[in-house]
Design goal:
Layout: E1 7-8, H1 17-26, E2 33-41, E3 44-48, E4 56-63, E5 78-87, E6 93-96, E7 104-112, H2 135-145, H3 149-160, H4 180-185, H5 194-211, H6 216-225, H7 227-233, H8 240-259
Parallel strand pairs: 1-7
Antiparallel strand pairs: 2-3, 2-4, 5-6, 5-7
Helix pairs in contact: 2-5, 3-8, 5-6, 6-7, 6-8
Length: 273
């Protein structure tokens, strides 16, 4: 993401600083504040010194004198990648962690993003399926993202009980209880608008289900506690809130599939080993 390349050691106490520092150093000028772009494309995130063609990029200003640089990656756990040097069509030399056409490896890195668990048991309770709640929106979002409609509804039921004005103690909002960073990443301008929330939640679940190869349990765990926590523990994190949440979603998913006339999952939902 030639000859042996220098490696940045894991930054256990200053997450995301490694690549942010490299990108800052790659920018010319004797300035105290520089701009790095956080770019999202196809469910992946990269950092770059200029906007990347085909990506949705957000400019982030980094203060050279800051005591601690911001985490620009999000919750990704520990991961390794590559910083590339790329000559853009306009002649600019761009440093990016996404491999662009014709780019050359600049250095390899390993970073650890911070553990900032958003785990909570969810505001909804296990009960009878509510097929009437935002039915049109759920059907459309599930179809557009090619995910199980019953699973999407089970997540919403567990998260908010379908309350579009719900706000969790962790700051998650709306029907799908999306955190602010997830809202921005999936284009949710108003988290309390049911359609936007459901569309954003469906897009996020599509990414999680692809990441975990269709494992509903791991997708639910990551939705609750973050992908970094799932990576750290190699499965469902042992947080009491997450364990309770996953069990709630498992039960609701089965009930929604039954109420919607769908076959039971075979085998039943379980944690991947």
């Amino acid at each position: 993401m030639p000859p042996p390349l220098p490696t940045i050691a894991p930054m256990h106490r200053r997450p995301a600083v490694a690549i942010a520092c490299v990108l800052v150093l790659a920018l010319p000028g004797e300035v105290q504040a520089r701009t790095v772009y956080r770019c999202v494309q196809g469910g992946t995130v990269s950092l770059s010194t200029a906007p990347e063609p085909g990506s949705k990029c957000e400019a982030k200003t980094i203060d050279d004198n800051a005591a601690m640089l911001p985490n620009l990656w999000g919750d990704l756990g520990v991961f390794s990648g590559t910083l590339y040097e790329w000559h853009a069509p306009d002649g600019r030399v761009v440093y990016t962690t996404r491999r662009m056409p014709g780019a050359m490896q600049y250095l390899k890195f390993t970073v650890e993003t911070p553990k900032a668990s958003t785990a909570h048991v969810g505001l909804g309770k296990v009960g009878a399926p509510r097929l009437d709640a935002h039915a049109k929106e759920f059907r459309a979002a599930a179809k557009a993202n090619r995910i199980d409609d019953a699973f999407l509804r089970a997540i919403a039921h567990a998260e908010s009980g379908f309350d579009p004005k719900a706000v969790s103690p962790k700051g998650a909002q709306g029907v799908m209880q999306l955190m602010p960073d997830v809202q921005r990443e999936y284009g949710v301008a108003d988290p309390f608008a049911s359609k936007q929330s459901i569309d954003g939640g469906a897009k996020f679940l599509r990414v999680l289900l692809r990441r975990y190869k269709g494992d509903f349990i791991l997708a639910a765990a990551a939705y609750n506690a973050g992908m970094g926590a799932v990576a750290k523990f190699g499965g469902v994190p042992p947080y009491a809130e997450t364990l309770a949440y996953v069990e709630k979603v498992r039960a609701l998913h089965a009930r929604y599939r039954s109420a919607m006339g769908l076959k039971p999952l075979d085998p039943p939902l379980r944690a991947a080993q």
